[in-house]
Amino acid sequence: MHRSDQYPDREQGSEAMDVAFASLLEDSAEELYEQAPCGYLSTLMDGTIAKINTTLLEWLGLSRQQVVGRMRFADLLTVGGKLYHETHFAPLLQLNGEVSGIALDIKASDGQRMPVLVTSKVKTGDDGGPLLVRTTVFDARDRRAYETELLRGRQAAEDARRQAEADRERLQEALAVLQQSLLPAELPEVPGLEAGSYYHTASPELLGGDFYDLFPLDADRWAFFLGDVCGKGPQAAAITSLTRYTLRAAALHDPDPVTVLTTLNTVLHERYTSGDTRYCTAIFGVLHPGSEHVSVHLASGGHPSALIQRADGTAEYLHTPGGMLIGVLPQAQFTAARTRLLPGDTLLLYTDGLTEARTGPDRELYGDEALRAFAAEQSAKGPQALITALTGLLAGFGDGLDDDTALLALGVPAPLPTPRVKT
């Protein structure tokens, strides 16, 4: 059996393909030029059109008699295109002998602008002198539409980015105002006492849960507190607001520090009993200024111990071990402590964003001992000086400080040195 008998369909397909190729090869060069999918024209060196194909004439809506020998290439262009041709296209063509892929607009048959891409090359004679210019014109309407759509998309994306930035700025401003509403606008002046505070926001887009306050109980006593609510965002802000209100109200009813924290524990535990447990840590205390010192009575619920910077250049913690988180259990244990602040002493309360900052190449916790050593190294110049030093310390942590941090410093002014009297 012959091979052709085995595969008759394949042989017939091959014959049909040969016929198709033969049909293509019968196209004349003139037909390929005239009916090409792009425009062709040849011009003299002064731009006069000497030859033009049918494709380009159909785009222009002109006859060959109207164009050949009567018009120049620049006459086919829009006003802007003519200007660009005279100032850029023609000089570059004369200088380099060719230009490629230049975007121009021609005047189409419908009176509209038709975007095209133009490539021209100078044909030279045997002596190297220029004879004529051959130009190819490609339809760029789809490309122009794509570029327009791309630009529109980019503009829309840019507008969306700007709107997002504006929205973010407004959100940050609103959050900053709300955050400030959870803190005292300024600390009150306490007779015989100095006070300083600072609040570091880790993220301008998240509400923090750190808080502090200082307020009078009566003519002789002042209450203070500082704490940290678990979590961030609006829910944390709501708990912070409730906590501050409860601490103030409880202090005015019974200022005993353990009693105040017990009241807060009851309120938080009863408020959040549906499985969404919310809690905080806090130190609450009472200041009683005297003639030569200030008595301090405080209690802690799960909060880092207060630090005392002494006038003699030492620093020590006022330990309150065993204090439990506030709001977790219906009955909680809180630890009280007492101390005296003498002239030049400063009591520092802080949230754990400070001691849990990451430092060094190994990203180690800053820690309690480092904070104590830092306080001991600072001159005992009062609460504001210590707050300023700690502000610089926090700034030095850089991205290692990833949590909000609240600072509250209370101290007794050191006596001014008595000037010597010359005799």
List the SSEs and their pairings.
Layout lengths: L2 H4 L1 H18 L3 H6 L4 E5 L5 E4 L1 H7 L3 H4 L11 H18 L1 E10 L5 E12 L5 E10 L1 H41 L12 E7 L9 E7 L5 E8 L4 H20 L3 H15 L8 E10 L4 E8 L4 E4 L5 E4 L16 E7 L4 E5 L7 E2 L4 E2 L2 H10 L5 H14 L8 E7 L12
Antiparallel strand pairs: 1-2, 1-5, 3-4, 4-5, 6-17, 7-8, 8-9, 9-10, 10-13, 11-12, 11-14, 14-17, 15-16
Helix pairs in contact: 8-9
Chain-averaged pLDDT:
86
Please summarize the sheet with the most strands.
Answer: 5 strands, antiparallel
Q: Please report which band the strand proportion falls in: under 5%, 5-15%, 15-25%, 25-35%, 35-45% or over 45%.
A: 25-35%
Rg estimate, integer Å: 43 Å
**Helicity level, as a percent range?**
25-40%
Q: What is the strand tally?
A: 17
Structural class: alpha+beta
What is the N-to-C order of secondary-structure elements (H for helix, E for strand)? HHHEEHHHEEEHEEEHHEEEEEEEEHHE
Instruction: Enumerate how many helices there are, as a single number.
Output: 11
Widest beta sheet: strand line-up: 2-1-5-4-3
In whole angstroms, how far apart are the ends? 142 Å
Uncertain segments are none
Form type: elongated
Q: Give the assembly state of these chains.
A: single chain
